[in-house]
Design goal:
By secondary structure, the chain is α/β, with parallel strands linked by helices. 35% of the residues lie in helices and 24% in strands. It has an eight-stranded mixed sheet with strand order 3-2-1-4-5-8-6-7.
Length: 246
């Protein structure tokens, strides 16, 4: 991915700069990425359930992705990428912020994990880059062209592969929870979200259909004061979905 081709990517330089500034604290569960640390176990539960369902792996298999390739787009410093590697995948992490990739490489090295971290945009991956699992969590709301971004994700998916996405819904509840309360009270770094760029499930579904993909599962992400974040049928705040080639 050369500088000359970056102009054709869906990376928003302002968004990349915003998240790049958070790189040093990405692995601090009490720092600016604390909300991601609280979300990650729930997301991982969904990821593992969909992997087992799609690939037919037993629930107690420690390395369900052994022999496969996994791509984490918008990987940050590797909160999801590292678990994918531990599940046995040859894992690749891709991010728009060079600072995040540097932090991810440093942390993976300390964990003894061999992960292929790259700075760049999914649309510019080479034809040889095809993955059995493609993940992109809380990323599509930050790109310049969601349709082109989804098309890029689709091209990266190997035949018979599985795609997993998550993103906030564009509702009054998401605006209240993520921006008014989350950013307003400092639980999420200010300027992280633009509510107008949130996608409703049917909107994202249409983008996936246009890219030759079919949604096979949608789950909501809810917050319970007693339990914290949980998977639910309520998709008003945030949702996760699984897709495969149509």
């Amino acid at each position: 991915m050369t500088d000359a081709t970056q102009q054709n990517s869906t990376i928003d330089p302002a968004e990349a700069a915003h998240f790049g500034k958070l790189a040093a604290e990405w692995w601090n569960p009490k720092g600016s990425s604390a909300m991601l640390h609280r979300l990650n176990p729930v997301r991982l539960g969904f990821v593992r359930a969909m992997i087992d369902r799609h690939f037919g792996t037993p629930h107690n298999e420690r390395r369900p992705l052994a022999g496969g390739r996994a791509l984490d787009v918008g990987c940050g410093a590797g909160l999801l990428t590292e678990p994918l590697a531990r599940m046995g995948a040859a894992a690749t992490g891709l991010d728009a912020a060079a600072e995040n990739i540097a932090a991810a490489r440093l942390h993976a090295e300390g964990q003894g994990l061999a992960i292929d971290y790259r700075h760049g945009s999914v649309e510019l991956l080479g034809a040889e880059d095809r993955f059995d699992l493609v993940c992109s969590m809380e990323v599509i709301e930050h790109v310049t062209d969601p349709a082109a971004f989804v098309a890029g994700l689709g091209r990266a998916l190997a035949p018979g592969g599985l795609m997993l996405l998550s993103t906030p819904n564009r509702t009054a509840l998401s605006k209240l929870a993520l921006i008014t309360v989350g950013e307003g009270l400092g639980q999420i770094p200010r300027g992280t979200h633009d509510w107008q760029k949130f996608l409703k499930p049917d909107e994202l579904g249409h983008l996936l259909e246009d890219a030759g993909l079919q949604v096979i599962e949608t789950r909501g992400l809810s917050f319970d004061p007693m339990k914290g974040f949980t998977l639910s049928d309520d998709i008003r705040m945030d949702y996760l979905l699984a897709a495969v080639a149509a």
